[in-house]
Design a protein that fits this description.
With 442 residues, this protein is of the alpha/beta class. It folds into two domains: 156 residues, no CATH class; 182 residues, Aminopeptidase (3-Layer(aba) Sandwich), CATH 3.40.630. The strands form three sheets. Strands 1-9-10-6-5-3-2 form a seven-stranded mixed beta sheet, with no helix packed on it. Strands 14-13-15-18-16-17 form a six-stranded mixed beta sheet, sandwiched between helices. The protein has a five-stranded antiparallel beta sheet with strand order 8-7-4-12-11. Bound molecules: zinc ion.
């Protein structure tokens, strides 16, 4: 991303992008990794980003907004039925709720709305909407049938929060680079952008807004379809309702909805391949992702733990977006899945990094249990626990976190394990079991 595009993205924007054909927005950034001619061997903690000072303040921090009227409209409208079961699905881009319009005379019950919600004026003649949740980017979107891009503006979007009501443009705010990249569809990722953000955000740390809406993007497609994306100040669980005049997106905090929350992070991705096997054919990012998706198969079969994934596809993913997600959903644990590399074939085995500064001891306890489970099922060498508090994803998260290094791509024996789908499933099951034991306190 260029400097000019950064400044372009730096406001409270309502920018409209017109596409000739409508298709689901590329909410995740796909990129083909280049396979290097030579093996990249980077030691035990290959490409985790070094810690540089304290975490920057949240970019959701903007100016105080205390003068809003404390009015919530009395809503008495038609009932809208929502499919609650779909909330339990866990893809990164999540179809949160499918909504049906119920045209009976039943009254719309405003108590179904959370204390925080958005009310969007329904464009003339617009049809049903579907809501999706791109939680890594704190973005909730609705796709509306039979709408027209010219009929929605910032004045049509009202935010209700803590007894306040506000309509109009969001405050000027500096969005994180990973959200700027997401909004622009730009798949460029580099540390310079992150550094710029850290510096620029310093002055904004103490400013806060209560407005849940930070920016909006509107995309028009064929047949009058409209996608309206709302960048929010934190991660919410959205539920969509609608009546004849409006769409309502009820926003609850994850901990209001889910008792136990875990974030699972497939290391690297997209333009960041991580390490490689010596033949260059097996990339770390792909092995990490396979393990995480096998873990997802296990988590999808239970409903006591809500899991947020930093990625479930081959997407370029900022480190800060990973730790922001874990912090903003108030996760009980973060588990980052990686694989290792070394300069020679001789080094092999499984190891795990934990937060030695975690006074609760939960990070170390999970690390010990997880490593034992993984080495048991893989029959891999037990390399032990390592202190990891300086690793980015461990340092910048507020909950117990671990980083599992399953095996060495640069060792023949380990590589054979990592290319064996059944072994990867066994590994995923062992990690799943360790997480469930940790979350359930046994
Ligand atoms: Zn890695």
């Amino acid at each position: 991303m260029t400097a000019s595009s950064v400044s372009l993205m730096t406001g409270a924007l309502f920018f409209t992008v017109l596409f000739s054909s409508f298709k689901p927005e590329p909410l995740t950034i796909l990129a083909n990794a280049e396979t290097p001619d030579k093996v990249v061997s980077q030691g035990t903690i290959e490409s985790e980003m070094p810690v540089s000072g304290e975490a920057a303040g949240s970019a959701s921090a903007i100016t105080e907004n205390a003068s809003l009227p404390a009015v919530i409209e009395n809503i008495n409208k038609d009932v809208i039925m929502a499919d609650q079961d779909s909330e339990k699905r866990n893809p990164v881009t999540e179809a949160a709720v499918n909504v049906e319009i119920n045209n009976t005379e039943s009254a719309f019950d405003p108590s179904v709305l959370s204390e925080v919600y958005l009310k969007i004026k329904r464009p003339e003649g617009a049809g049903m909407a579907v809501v999706t949740d791109d939680y890594l980017y704190r973005t909730v979107s609705i796709d509306i049938d039979n709408a027209n891009v010219k009929t929605i503006s910032s004045n049509d979007i009202t935010r209700y929060y803590n007894g306040h009501e506000y309509t109009g443009d969001p405050e000027q705010i500096l969005l994180e680079p990973y959200i700027q990249a997401y909004l622009s569809g730009n798949d460029v990722i580099n540390d310079d952008i992150q550094d710029e953000y850290y510096d620029a955000s310093g002055e904004q740390k103490k400013k806060k807004t209560k407005d849940p809406l930070l920016a909006t993007r509107i995309i028009a497609g064929e047949d009058g379809r409209l996608k309206v994306s709302f960048v929010l100040n934190t991660v919410y669980v959205p539920t969509l309702y609608e009546d004849n005049d409006s769409y309502y997106i009820s926003l609850k905090r994850p901990k209001e909805v889910y008792d136990k929350i875990v974030v699972i992070d497939a290391g690297h991705g997209g333009k960041d391949p991580g390490s490689f096997s010596f033949d260059g054919k097996t990339s770390e990012k792909s092995v990490n992702l396979k393990i995480v998706n096998y873990m997802k198969d296990f988590f999808d079969k239970q409903d006591t733990v809500k899991v947020y994934y930093t990625r479930t596809t081959d997407t370029t993913t900022y480190l800060k977006s990973r730790t922001d997600l874990a912090n903003k959903v108030d996760a009980d644990y973060l588990i980052s899945v990686h694989n290792n590399a070394y300069f020679t074939n001789e080094v092999y085995g499984s190891e795990i990094l934990y937060d030695e500064k975690d006074k609760s001891g939960k990070s170390k306890a999970l690390a010990a249990d997880m490593l034992q489970g993984v080495t048991d099922v893989l029959k891999s060498r037990y390399r032990g626990l390592n202190e990891g508090s300086k690793i980015y994803v461990i340092h910048h998260t507020r909950m117990p976190s671990v980083l599992m290094e399953v095996g060495y791509l640069t060792n023949d024996k380990d590589l054979a394990l990592l290319k064996n789908e059944n072994k990867l499933k066994d590994c995923a099951e062992a990690m799943y079991n360790a997480i469930m034991r940790a979350v359930n306190g046994n």
